[in-house]
Write a structure and sequence with these properties.
By secondary structure, the chain is an alpha/beta fold. It has 9 helices and 5 strands; from the N terminus they run βαααβαβααβαβαα.
């Protein structure tokens, strides 16, 4: 499988879905404050997969950029602290889930901004060459499908179970198989 790269840069998209409980805890200010390495423990398999894809597809000396989408601001901030300039992400926006009770309470327009940000994130994710996504998330899958590139998507289970076999550079998730995964959409 060859990977089409833009201007000599290999772009790897990583999407980590932490879940509604994490979004709510971060929004309420009840999320635990932890060191970046501790925050990334539960999602480390996504970054290990990106490293594996980079090793398999990057040409010697080629620039590689990772683009991270995550519903967790803590994950985005921790990943930026650990991976530095290699990783692009928005580490300042707090995610707002577009559910009815949030919409009713949205006096400051946070939801509008969050929805605009989500759309921009999906479109940016679609511009990556390879995508590592959360198996149970429609958000990452939508961006990967918009990329209109076949054989470039790697779905990982959120808890890291059997991640190694799910991230074989020679065996990406086929769109027909991916479309059968229930992701809530």
């Amino acid at each position: 499988m060859s990977v089409c790269m833009s201007v000599g840069v290999l772009r790897i998209g990583i999407q980590v879905r932490s879940g509604d409980k994490v979004i709510e805890a971060e929004a309420n200010g009840t999320a635990q404050q932890r060191a970046p390495q501790d925050v990334l423990k539960s999602s480390s398999h996504f970054f290990k997969c990106a490293e594996r894809l980079e090793a398999a597809f990057a040409a010697p000396g080629q620039n590689v950029i990772w683009f991270l989408n995550s519903d967790s601001q803590a994950v985005r901030q921790a990943a930026k602290a650990v991976y530095g300039d290699k990783l692009l992400t928005d580490d300042s926006l707090q995610t707002v889930h577009p559910e009815r009770r949030v919409i009713k309470q949205d006096a400051e327009g946070k939801l509008k901004w969050a929805l605009q940000h989500a759309l921009g994130s999906i479109l940016t994710f679609s511009m990556t060459d390879l995508q590592v996504i959360t198996q149970t998330s429609g958000f990452g899958r939508t961006g990967a499908w918009l990329a209109e590139r076949r054989d470039r998507m790697y779905e990982l289970h959120p808890d890291g179970a059997k991640w190694s076999g799910m991230c074989n550079p020679k065996k990406p998730k086929q769109p027909a198989v991916s479309s059968k995964t229930n992701s809530g959409i």
